[in-house]
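Why does residue order matter? Because the sequence determines the fold. Keep that principle in mind as you read this record.
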Amino acid sequence: MGNLNLSGAARFRYGIFDNATLPSIRIGGTAILGGELVLYVFDGSPVTSSDTFTVLTASEIRRQFTNVVSGGRVTAISPAGVPLGTFLVTISNTSVLVSDFQPMP
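Structure:
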C-alpha cells in the first residue's frame, strides 16, 4: 500500500488527452493533498461540460489543494500555458473528480 503526501510547494499535474481513455491515478493508501492542482487539456481533446474525469483515487484523501478546494473551479491550460477553460473540482474522502468544463469566452 503506497501513500502520497503533497507538500505546499508541490504541483500535481494532470493531463486530459481523450475523454474515452483517460487513466486516473490510484493510491493504495492515503493521499494527503497540498500544493497546486494543474490541469492540462491537450490539443484536439473533445472535452465538454458533461464530461467527468477521475483524477485520483485513494483509500483515504485528506486536506485540499492550495489553489482550489472542493466545490471550486480550477483553470485548465494547454501545454503552451494558454488558459482554455475551467473545471469544477470535487474532492471526497476517496476521490478527486473534475467536471463541468466551461471554455474561456
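Strands lie at 4-5, 11-16, 25-32, 36-41, 52-62, 73-77, 83-91, 95-103.
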